[in-house]
Amino acid sequence: MKFPDLSMSNPVRLRELIRQIRSAKTAAEERAVVQKESAYIRDAFRDEDNTWRCRNVAKLLYISLLGYPAHFGQLECLKLIASTRFTDKRIGYLGAMLLLDERQDIHVLITNSLKNDLNNSNEYVAGLALCALGTICSPEMSRDLGGEVERLMKSSNVYLKKKAILCAVRIIRKVPEQFDVFQNSVRSLLSEKHHGVLLTATTLITEMCQQNTQALQVFRNLVPNLVRILKNLIMAGCSPDHDVSGISDPFLQVHLLRLLRVLSRNDNEASDSMNDILAQVSTNTENSKNVGNAILYETVLTIMDINSESGLRVLAVNILGRFLLNTDKNIRYVALNTLLRVVHADQNAVQRHRATIVECLKDADVSIKRRAMELCFALMNKNNIRTMTDEMLDFLGTCELEFKSDCTSNMFLAMDRFSPTKQWHVDQMIKVLTTAGNSVRDDIVSSLIGIISSTPDLYGYAAHQLYKKMQNDITQQPLVQVASWTLGEFGDLLVNQQPQNEENLRVVEIEIIDILERILNSSLSTVITREYAINALMKLSTRFPNCSDRIQSVMTYYACNMNLELQTRAVEYTSLFTKHNIIRSSIVERMPVLISNQTSNTNSSEPEESIINSKENSPVNGKHEHVPSDEPINLVNILNDPIQTTSGTLNPNHSSSLFNPLEDSLFDFDTPTNPTTKSIPSMTAIDKNGIRMIFTFERDNTTLTINSKITNSTQYSITNFIFKAAVPKTFNIDLYPASSTTIPANNSGDIQQIIKITNPNREKIRMRIKLNYQVNNTNMSDEAELNTFPEQCYN
């Protein structure tokens, strides 16, 4: 005789299941409860238990939220959706939104149920269908049900109208071409008085304009209507029910400002119609509460992103300056971040707040400190380079270790560009090396050596200054490396020339040999530093003939060193003493003056190919590498070559053709004189390993501005992002700094970077790009060759 299964007739309620799981004392107990209940639910589904299906699916959704597998309940959700009971539909649609997505084929089975429920006379059933469609719709479902959603947008029921508009936002994201379906319905929505309808309507129009360039042109004539709505909110108020801290409907104000910014970008007429209302919002909004600060922040972004008046831009920068004085760290961070983005639009206005920005360097919050550091470097120019260098040296001496390498690199780039004299440049860089210690990057060492080498008047002076710094401290490896090279090249000048104002400093040959030998034998010296020292000793063997025997004995000793590199050098140098002594003097003679590419190419009429390496923490990151004119164009090889910072100095006489971060606009706010009115479609530059880079284009005659947007769909944040690009010799490329070197995970944010290409011959554009970055502490690299630029970019 078969007894009935009593356990199936009395399932545990959801509340009881939650209580059992929460009372579990260990993870193992929790897993046991979940596994037992999952087994019961699976058996109930297998036996087609219709009585408790709704309760079982609800419990399964809770189990899914805890991270346990619940995929076996997908079909049961569809059965609940097909039910006529509202309670079943509610749980069914909730399960569909949580357990289904467009990547699973099973989700297409829900299309017919959605269509039926969208036409249901019960507004709550139709609302459930709209919520589900807005969450899980695929491109196919968007095309099939777009007409039904558009019909509900015209409904007199405000509840359905709001949900239909938000559902349309999802459809436009999936299929931007569906803009034609909703175009006529959207215009009438702006005449609605209901807060929710206006809020969702502005969201939908913003999404359409961002996804479809045709929509941007169509809706641009709505700017006067939007200005009127915003003015009514400020002057009369929309509804007392939506006032927050005395400000009328701040959420709608923010959405209106955002939409106006999208519609008025690069449009003089639309920008002019907004100037008055933006001035009113800026002056009449109370900034004592976060609500007002949010509106002011959107106002600032709008002012700086459209072709606004210069006075309005100054007002926007002053608002950000007030933000810097706020006690809230988040507001200060937002202010610094925004100033960093707009500093190129109106540098003089930002300079007025320089003292406040410098004070932010002393903030305890590392995020604020980093943004303040980056902004300080962006504010440097030839007029304030001395003052700002002193401020940054003070910061370098007190900042955390993680800031030192970025700070030293940026200080070198700024001084390389704006230093008043070479002697001042060398003095300050020695201070930087002394202050930063071992946190200096290797490229700074080689760059400083290049500066000293290219300035013959400073040979003796640099040797004296570096020798003084190295006398009492040989632990700072970058400083010791530069000093060793300088002593090896110009040690004779250190002995023979008496520096001005330093009468007590007398150096003899044996002292120089002693300190180099001490560096070579020190356990604190790195292998690279010892290589510099052994080379310097070899150089001095001809400059100091009296010390030649001692130097030879040092080389003989190191010929048996355990380090292969040092041993090899010592063996070769020993052979110069013994077997090739005749040519030793010519081999170790003084190096010729290093001439940068910029200088050597001033007399050349050959077109050159440029490659630029960009890093977020450097306000002046553009360094040009040139391919010799007698070599064929090979973009792959160019990208593999390292960037030589010693040969990439910027020539102030040619600043119009090179990147000037303090004069050019980061977002290209100024309207070009003869803009090309053609609409250029966007382009996916690379979509690989979770990184997606989208190019959008703006063209002014022979100059193409590429706005790149990089997103990260992986579960890990991408750090140390570096972008390289190369073009053929007939083009000129300028790469602006990226907005950041960190790309947030799961598409939760992006970084932006601007590339400008000059194409005088209007040739088809070819570009080779390379991305270097770190994911989960793993170094990664991606390359791509771009040959499919839209024809409007060059014709």
Please give a structural write-up.
The structure is a single chain. The protein is α+β, with helices and mostly antiparallel strands and 795 residues long. Among the domains are: 455-588, no CATH class; 683-793, Immunoglobulin-like. The strands form three sheets. It has a five-stranded antiparallel sheet with strand order 4-3-8-11-12. Strand 5 (683-688) and strand 6 (691-700) form a beta hairpin. The model is unreliable at 1-8 and 596-677 (pLDDT under 50).
Mean residue pLDDT: 82
Classify the beta-strand content into a percent band: 5-15%
What is the general shape?
A: elongated
Number of strands: 12
Helix % is: 55-70%
Radius of gyration: 34 Å
Distance between the termini: 87 Å
Number of helical regions: 35
Structural class of the helix and strand makeup?
A: alpha+beta
Multimerization status:
single chain
**Lateral strand order in the biggest sheet:** 4-3-8-11-12
* Unreliable residue runs: 1-8, 596-677
Q: Could you describe the largest sheet, including whether it forms a barrel?
A: 5 strands, antiparallel
Topology (SSEs and partners):
Blueprint: H1 6-9, H2 14-23, H3 27-46, H4 53-65, H5 74-81, H6 86-99, H7 111-118, H8 123-136, H9 139-153, H10 158-174, H11 179-189, H12 195-211, H13 213-219, H14 223-235, E1 243-244, E2 247-248, H15 250-264, H16 268-284, H17 290-305, H18 310-324, H19 329-342, H20 347-351, H21 354-359, H22 366-379, H23 385-398, H24 401-418, H25 422-436, H26 442-453, H27 459-471, H28 477-496, H29 509-521, H30 527-543, H31 548-558, H32 564-578, H33 581-587, H34 597-600, E3 610-614, E4 625-626, H35 635-640, E5 683-688, E6 691-700, E7 703-712, E8 718-726, E9 732-735, E10 750-758, E11 767-775, E12 778-786
Antiparallel strand pairs: 1-2, 3-4, 3-8, 5-6, 6-7, 7-10, 8-11, 9-10, 11-12
Helix pairs in contact: 2-3, 3-4, 4-6, 5-6, 6-8, 7-8, 7-9, 8-10, 9-10, 9-11, 10-12, 12-13, 12-15, 14-15, 14-16, 15-17, 16-17, 16-18, 17-18, 17-19, 18-19, 19-22, 23-24, 23-25, 24-25, 25-27, 26-28, 27-28, 28-29, 28-30, 29-30, 30-31, 30-32, 31-32, 32-33
